[in-house]
Amino acid sequence: MSKMRKQQYILLILLCLSITVRAQDSSSSPFLKKLIPTGAQGQFAGNIGMISIGPNWNLYKEKIHLEYSFGVVPENEFLKPIYSSALKLRFTPWKINIDDKTHLYPASLGIAMNYTYGERYNKYNNPGQYERGYYWWTTAMRFGTFYQIEISRSFDTKFFKEAGVYFETSIWDLDLYNYSANENYMELSYMELLTLGAGFRIYF
Predict the structure, then answer these.
(1) Going by C-beta distance under 8 Å and a sequence separation of 6 or more, which residues neighbour residue 95?
(2) Do residues 146 and 170 touch, judged by C-beta distance below 8 A?
(3) I need a surface site. Which of 18, 74, 141, 186 has the fewest CB within 10 A?
(4) Would the pTM count as exceeding 0.85?
(5) Cβ-proximal residues to 96 (8 Å cutoff; 6+ apart), any chain
(6) What digits encode the pLDDT tens for the residues 4-17?
(7) 85-100 pLDDT, tens per residue?
(8) What's the rounded Cα separation, in Å, for the pair 182 and 202?
């Protein structure tokens, strides 16, 4: 079984376990509860796949979250499908209650790491094709920072307690390097550095 296929199965198992455990009047051990995701998210674009989905964990008082997403860029006439995995560490310092059930998270900040699967993303490591150090960066791994704004709504259900939508802007390492290395970077707009994304998030 391929590494990518294993991650897909693990993702599905985690999401199913999370919904099942949260829906029950659980007597699960504290250790098990720490392993079970406390939410899930799906995203469109944002440099982690055209579409991505995965679980997340509340690490500290609903202010620090860890997110995992499995992303895909669908196959088309020019490209084979592209699969990737992303990890995000998200810090949400403020929650504004618009009313009893509507909440605004005005500024979530974080760091992200995205890995793209496939041998083709290691082609620059071929010493017979390029001289050593010609491409100094890894072609499969990207690192970035992001900002999100989210609005959510509380729900009284046994499956999840809150759901919302968010919008994201991110900056990635290679884009930043290419921008700063350009001799005419002063003439370029910083907007060219930004990658946009949008998604939904549910809290169990």
Answers:
(1) 62, 103, 104, 105
(2) yes
(3) 186
(4) no
(5) 103, 104, 105, 106
(6) 565 555 566 656 65
(7) 999 999 999 999 999 9
(8) 41
CA proximity to 46, closest of 181, 142, 122: 142
Compute the residue count for the chain.
204
Q: How far apart are CA 76 and CA 180, in angstroms?
A: 33
DSSP-assigned states of every residue in the chain:
--HHHHHHHHHHHHHHHHHHHHHS-----HHHHHHS-SEEEEEEESSS-SEEEEEEEEEETTTEEEEEEEEEE---SS---EEEEEEEEEE----EESSSSEEEEEEEEEEEEEEE-SGGGGGGG-TTTS-TTSS-S-SSEEEEEEEEEEEEEE---SS-SEEEEEEEEEEEHHHHHHHHHSTTGGGS-GGGG-EEEEEEEEE-
Per domain, the residue ranges of the chain are 3-203
| Tokens matching residue 138 | 């890894």
Q: Please name every residue paired with 199 in a beta bridge, in sequence order, or none if there are none.
A: 43, 166
Place of tokens 């499995």: 70
